[in-house]
Amino acid sequence: MDAQAQQTERDRSSHPAVPEEISDTEGAEGRSRFALAGRAADWLPGGRISLTVLFCLLSLLLLTRFVIQPFEIPSGSMEPGLRIGDRVLVNKLAYRFGAEPRRGDVVVFDGTGYFGDADYIKRVVGVGGDHVVCCDTQGRIEVNGRSVDESTFLHEGDEPSEAPFDVVVPDGTLFLLGDHRGDSSDSRDHLGSPGGGMIPVGDVIGRADWIAWPTGHWTRVERADVYARVPAATGRTGPGARGPKSADGVHG
Fold first, then answer.
1. 147 to each of 142, 177, 179, 229, 231, how far by Cα in Å?
2. Structural domain for 48, as ranges
3. Are 51 and 112 within one domain?
4. Domain boundary, last residue among 27, 46, 65
5. Same domain, 60 and 124
């Protein structure tokens, strides 16, 4: 230790002392943090084990608040992909930093003031500017003039919609439908409500990315690629939806 001190003294004239000061400060801060953690561990019942558990719980709370949040599926409105009792992990960062929901995404959103005072999970069928119509001559939904074959994810025996509709999605909003069209209360059911059945993008909580529970259902929730060939909206905007209201469904 003395030899190191002497070497430092000899070199002081040719080397600035700042690096040594930074190193000493970091060491002092590190020792201070370690001592603080030690005192906290001594104060908590259970010592370091309790401190570790508390740290893990705090990390989990921050994770679910800002990054990933689990939601339980309460109804059959998204069957067959999502079943009653499934727990999905919702990516809350999916639409941050400039990204926005895309057609085919399965999203969780706050329906307060539009669908009801609850959170809902539905599939995005139309985004701002889209012209969404049901149905074409083959009974399929059209988006911007392109017919979409939804048979890969619709509930068996369901039609794309039993009630016709013709909507132009206002900018900054989404038109959303459940995959179990015969058992889903969605944008079709709220055409005459405030917002015209559309949900503001800002009310989207996140994108459902995984089914986490039960373990036998563990899988990734994929975006429906059948919307990939839908052309971009022509820029048409409008006050919302036009068409008759469909039959009641079950909230998702």
1. 4, 16, 17, 9, 11
2. 2-65
3. no
4. 65
5. no
The two beta strands, 204-213 and 219-220, are antiparallel
Number of folded domains in the chain? 2
Burial environment of residue 210 by CB neighbours within 10 A (0 to 12, 13 to 18, 19 or more):
middle
Is 77 a catalytic site residue?
A: yes
SS3 letters for 168-198? Answer: ECCCCEEEEECCCHHHCCCHHHHCCCCCCCC
| Same domain flag for 137 and 193 | yes
Tell which of 65, 95, 120 closes a domain: 65
pLDDT by residue for the chain (252 residues), tens only, comes to 444 444 444 444 444 444 433 333 344 444 444 444 455 445 556 556 655 655 555 544 545 555 689 999 999 999 999 999 999 999 999 998 889 999 999 999 999 999 989 999 999 999 999 999 999 999 999 999 999 999 999 999 999 999 999 999 999 999 999 999 999 999 999 998 889 999 999 999 999 999 999 988 889 998 999 999 999 987 544 434 343 333 222 233
Of 75, 92, 122, 185, the active-site residue reads 122
- Let me know how long the chain is: 252
Q: Which residues contact 168 (CB under 8 A, 6 or more apart)?
A: 129, 130, 131, 132, 236, 237, 238, 240, 241, 242
Catalytic residue, from 77, 184, 187, 246: name it.
Answer: 77
Same-domain check for residues 72 and 176: yes
Residue 59 appears among annotated catalytic residues: no
One domain for residues 13 and 83: no
24 and 113, same domain (yes or no): no
pTM of the shown model: 0.71
